[in-house]
Amino acid sequence: MNFDFNAVIQAIPYLFGTGMTFTLTLTLAAASMGLVLGTLLAVMRLSPYRLVSVPAGIYVNTLRSIPLLLVIFWFYFLMPYIGAWVTGASRPINIGAYKSAIITFTLFEAAYFCEIMRAGIQSVSRGQMAAGLAIGLTYRQAMQSIILPQAVRNMLPSLVTRVIILFQDTSLVYVLSLTDFLGAGAKIGQRDGRLVELYLFVALVYWVICFSASRVVKFLERRTRVAR
Amino acid sequence: MIEFNNVSKWYGEFQVLDNCTTHVSKGEVVVVCGPSGSGKSTLIKTVNALEPFEKGTVWVNGISVGDAKTDLPKLRARAGMVFQHFELFPHLSVTENLCMGQIKVLKRNPEEAKAKAHALLDRVGLLAHKDKHPGMLSGGQQQRVAIARALSMDPMVMLFDEPTSALDPEMVNEVLDVMSDLAREGMTMMVVTHEMGFARRVADRVIFMDGGKIIEDCATSEFFDNADARSERTRLFLSKILQH
């Protein structure tokens, strides 16, 4: 078999300029918005009011029980109708594959971030909330300034691990015909008849990024242990 | 300053406070003692509403704690509390620990808050540690920071919940010294403690609790020196802890 890695070198501007840019944008957008939404859900799940905690619990357990691929499809085809229903428009509102992907990944990741943040909040001793309230903070202020910063710090390794999984999962957007890093590789590979080379290269890049990130997780785990 | 009228509290079936009635006057130091599970910590935590109660009333400086309309954060800001396990905020520096409430609750500007924080740290002898994180300090030092944090809010009363029982024996005195100084300066204090030496030296009054009830509530000298007038339960408790 004759490998021709020239095809890879020529494809690099496209692979990174278009593919990786999209993959990273989607990862960062879904991670940051998902973390905010997930934190909100975690606080809701821990609420003593069932009216607040139960809906959050249903949301999280439902999304965690459905394959991501299904959620992506589901939202892409359903979102236009939901949009029309919400705004009262007579025709389905087309929001496009790109926005649909960002919304889907955000909603999906939020369910996982919620469970990580819930564990994080519960890892902070109850006395910390009491101490926050005792100096006159409101529940919300104590949550924001005392509990959540500690929860995030305790959970940083798990959060980064989850973002690594998210980074890999973004390749599923191929079903919406979006071009992520893997998709870009596949396109070039098919065009030039160099699929094996391109797939090898793409796998190598994923491996380098994810393996480095997992080393970061190891480092964070060690640091968290020392800080306690 | 503080008035408890027939305060009762239940955890499900279990009654933790049983018709507690007492008061604390301005400038008074009251030690609350009793066996574990007697309700003494719960009693002082009703003052700043960290422990809600089902029956009775607690008045703090004319404000009813149990009233749904009471602005609890405002009330708590004026009632400093020191916890058994310090509960300093581990992710913040010592100075930031002392500034948090001043800035977020009292709306002091950061410079003013910092100046106040450093003055208080100096007072408890820890100014040299102002930029450290709580985890780098000894237990006794952490508890002194916790006292300074409570004082940063200019409280009208200080509540101490077993402030020395999580400390190594050699660190107990540095904390008690700070508390004695506070008492001497006229701070109104409620102190849950087993330190009977401290109670005898500093307290104006001693409350003894058992099974959620206030069994004794009398002047310090009366409590320690007039054993015959004490209930049998109190004498048993004192005989057990005073021997050592």
TrEMBL record, chain A:
Domain ABC transmembrane type-1 span(s) in chain numbering: 20-217
Coiled-coil spans in chain: none
InterPro entries: AA_ABC_transptr_permease_3TM, ArtM/GltK/GlnP/TcyL/YhdX-like, MetI-like, MetI-like_sf
Pfam families, A to Z: BPD_transp_1 (PF00528)
NCBIfam families: HEQRo_perm_3TM
Recorded family membership: Belongs to the binding-protein-dependent transport system permease family. HisMQ subfamily.
Name of the featured protein: Amino acid ABC transporter permease
UniProtKB/TrEMBL annotation, chain B:
Cell location: Cell inner membrane
Pfam families, per database record: ABC_tran
Domain ABC transporter: 2-236
SUPFAM superfamilies in UniProt: P-loop containing nucleoside triphosphate hydrolases
SMART domains: AAA
CDD domains on file: ABC_HisP_GlnQ (cd03262)
UniProt cross-references to PROSITE patterns, sorted A to Z: ABC_TRANSPORTER_1, ABC_TRANSPORTER_2
Keywords carried by this UniProt record: Amino-acid transport, ATP-binding, Cell inner membrane, Cell membrane, Membrane, Nucleotide-binding, Transport
Primary localization class, coarse: membrane
Its membrane topology: Peripheral membrane protein
Gene3D superfamilies reported for this sequence: P-loop containing nucleotide triphosphate hydrolases
Gene Ontology terms, MF aspect: ATP binding
InterPro entries found in the cross-reference section: AAA+_ATPase, ABC_ATPase_HisP-typ, ABC_transporter-like_ATP-bd, ABC_transporter-like_CS, MetN_ABC_transporter-like, P-loop_NTPase
Family: Belongs to the ABC transporter superfamily.
Name of the protein this chain belongs to: Amino acid ABC transporter ATP-binding protein
Organism from which the protein derives: Pseudomonas typographi
